Amino acid sequence: MKQAIKNIMTKNKFTRAVYKTLLVIRYHGIIAVFKIIKRKLIKEVKVEAAAYTYTAPTKAELDKQRKAKFKKDIEFSILTPLYNTNEKFLTEMIESVRAQSYKNWELCLADGSDAEHKNVEAICMSYVKKDSRIKYTRLEQNIGIAENTNACLEFATGDYISFLDHDDLLTPDALYETMLAVCEHGAQFIYSDEDKVCEKTITFSEHCYKPDFAPDYLRSMNYICHFVSVSREIINKIGLLSSGFNGAQDYDFVLRSTEQTKNIYHIPKVLYHWRTHAASTSVSFDAKTYAIESGKKAVEKHLERISLGGAVEALQIPGTYKINYELSEKPLVSILVPNKDHINDLKRCINSVLEKSAYKNFEIVIIENNSTEKRTFEYYKTLETKENIRVVNYDDVFNYSKINNFGVSHANGEYLIFLNNDTEVITESWIEELLMYAQRDDVGIAGAKLYYADFSVQHAGLVVGLFNAASHVHYKIYNNNDPGYSCRLKTAQNYSAVTAACMMMKKALFLDVGGFYEDMTVAYNDIDLCMKVRAKGKLIVWTPFCELIHYECTSRGINDTPEKEKRENNERAMFVKRWEDYWENGDPYYNVNFSSKNADFVIE
User: Fold this and answer.
1) C-alpha–C-alpha distance, residues 291 and 270, integer Å
2) CB-side exposure of 164: number of CA atoms within 13 Å?
3) Which tens digits make up the pLDDT trace of 288-330?
4) In 30, 405, 406, 469, which residue has its Cα 20 to 30 A from 11's Cα atom?
5) At what angle do helices 118-130 and 87-98 cross, to 10 degrees?
6) Confidence of residue 2 (pLDDT cuts 50, 70, 90)
């Protein structure tokens, strides 16, 4: 009956709101409802405050760049296929290249315009006459964006190949910054941040500040996009653009390129202005619906090349994808749940695991820690009648790290799930969603998407460096339907850490890194564990497709005493000191342009 009511209540927007409100009142009280309303209002204010202004390099900065001497002599070939290009857009595009502070470039133009668009050829030829670095060829027919681009490559002579669409713009420092990446970092594949520019080239908007290379995010969507430059060495390995991916030929090219090198460098600066107009995918994928299917195909072929089995599905947000990786096996998974009394929380947690888990090869290890209530032990007796549930006793004072390390010593599974007792499973395939990542050799830990009782986001990945230590991102003011910044709430991706309220990893890896650091008794121990795993060269993956409710702090409470605050401050300082080298370099999955005092991807 309870489930039936829930199903009815979640059928439409109004009844979902009612159901969520009742959940909040039940678990947090009526005051929490008013706090939620306040958060929603704050969100609107933050959106209003997050206005973006592109700041171009000054004349003095550009003059300095023009005088710069480099240890390498690198020529960049910028490839731009043309097709019925708007005269204004074409002229502005060419002028943006000619304005580059770094001068060793060539602009290769291949024109497949229809016969009535002779003005395109006329404009190009006028520039060829005034600037020898501009090369132009007239194609007999339009053969598609991929083949038109390949035609540019046929007469390109540069050491690095760069890509520029016929209606977009480069910032004047684009090639200079790319040259720095080549000379200072040995980069073979370089990409930058970008924004959008209106048709009249008056206003800039929708900044896209990207993370450093994040393979799982890239498989979810082409977050790299513009401005891309690739060494000739990579081009020689992978070949040209493929016409079989028209509309997503750049996505396919990026995937193939990044497979061939680890020398990938992200420039955290806007170097590319993507033009917004009716026919551009910068406005809507509806302009090129075939691009969605091409993108799906690009990811499928990528998985084949790197020998990762999985089915790719296009998501509701155009241009985003979910990979359902094949499970190589169905190993025993040990679910570790520390507990002290709070039987209502524990019952809800255990019942949700038992009732909703589609994956059946698991055991639950409840780590009992100094419970005092009679009904707690009565409940334990009912659980121990089940073959796959055990209760083990940890009799020392509370120490989250020691408790879980002790629990692992009693776990029989090849994989471990650390799970708080104040969580409730939503997704039936939650174990599979974590296991499909944790089984990979390159992944160390997989984490889940957690909600508060009102279905606002509680956990969607952790960033190191926020608030002088580390913090969840996107939390509190976003709900389960929000896409987040650059679709980051709706796509699987890499983060520096995830919370141990629900995380999975191999038991062998856990033991290899020494488990949880026991000097951190309550806070930062899970982030520290993730950092130790990353130090082993492993990725941390957060997936939005494993969803749970986290009734946070109902077990341990909040830091509402001087003693608790002192303890947390000490553990924060301990965490910062242990990872100060990483601390200095910043978090690779959180762009340096974002504020370190805000968890919502707000510009510094």
Assistant:
1) 25
2) 32
3) 678 899 999 999 999 999 999 999 999 999 999 999 999 999 9
4) 30
5) 20
6) very low
